[in-house]
Each structure stands twice: as structure tokens, then as C-alpha cells.
Amino acid sequence: PLSTTSFRGFFIPKAWNMAELFIESEYHSIPHQFAEFRVANVDYIIDFSSDNDVIESLFSLDERLEPLLKNRSTYSVKFGVKEYYESTDPSIDLYAPPINHQLKKTDIQHLKEQLETLLYKHYLIYQPECYFFIAERPSLSRMYQKMCDNRHPLMIDFQPIGQLGENSDCFIIKTPNYKE
Question: For the purposes of burial, counting CB atoms within 10 Å of the CB of 125, is it exposed (0-12), middle (13-18) or buried (19 or more)?
């Protein structure tokens, strides 16, 4: 059997196939898919989750969210440093940048491309209508805005909507499955 690591109640196999395989898990009956990837010698985890109750609780952030997301197959997307995800310290900031590591412009571009590629691979497998992101800090907001403004060629048929929420920190990406 594979050895596992724990992430806040999830048991994740340690033998990941880098960015090629989604590990499926459930937490409080909420399905999640995880993938690991590496940028500039930092290991990250991306987390896709599908919870309609959580999505509907976000409608209060911006009146434009409900007509876009209500009754849609939607995944929320988060990513962070793998070390933070695996930490058992309840006070750790999951969305903090890597400690003692300054990403260069080329690293940020690589991170963006990794996120877009994983989003596209997830779409091919799980076929949602849209993805929802909340930027937990300004640098994440800039990253998500770049994903909206300068889409990867794989995602040319996806429609991004940015600058949602009272802090303009919410983003939606409609997939080709999204029908008006």
C-alpha cells in the first residue's frame, strides 16, 4: 500500500504522479480532487471542490454571483504550498507565499501555466460548467486576473469573469459546458 500524508482530515497518497493525476477524496461528504505540481523548486497542491452549499453562501459577496452560479456545476479552486497543506498547525496560513522564496517573473508565468493546465485537465475529466476562485491575498488576485486577461491557448473557449465581490477578489471561469 502507498504511504499517506494527512491534510486536515484528508488522507493523500504520498506517491503523486506530478500534475498528471487527480487524487479524489471527500471531506464532510464534499468531493475534492487534488493535484500536486512544482514551480521554482516549491511543491504546490491545487484543490478542486464541489459544494453547492458553500457556493450558494458566496452569493452575498456580490449580487452578480447568484445568476452566474446558481444551479450550475461549479468547482471552487484553491492552491497553496504543499508544506502548508500538509501541516497540522491549525494557525498556518494556507495561502501564504513560500517562506524565504521570491518568485521571479518567469516563475510567476510558469505558475500561471501550471494552474491553467491543471484546470483544463480537471475540466476534461469532471466536465463542470464553471470554476470559482476567491483570492485570499493581493498576489493571488493578480494571478487570477492574469488567468482571466491572458488565457492559455488550451482555454480559449473558456469565458473568464473577474473583479467580482466587494473587494474585486472573486473570479469565475465559465467552461464550454456553460450554456446561457
Answer: exposed
Residue range 52-74, pLDDT digits in tens: 888 888 888 888 999 999 999 99
Q: Cα–Cα distance between 131 and 143 in angstroms, integer?
A: 15
Give the separation between CA 48 and CA 63, rounded to whole angstroms: 24
Q: What pLDDT digit, counting tens, does each position of 13-27 carry?
A: 444 443 457 888 888
Sheet containing 159-164: order of strands: 23-27, 30-39, 42-49, 74-81, 130-134, 170-174, 159-164
- How far CA 50 is from CA of 28, 43, 77, 110, 129, in Å, comes to 12, 24, 9, 26, 11
Q: What is the pTM of this model?
A: 0.83
CA distance linking residue 149 with residue 172, whole number of Å: 12
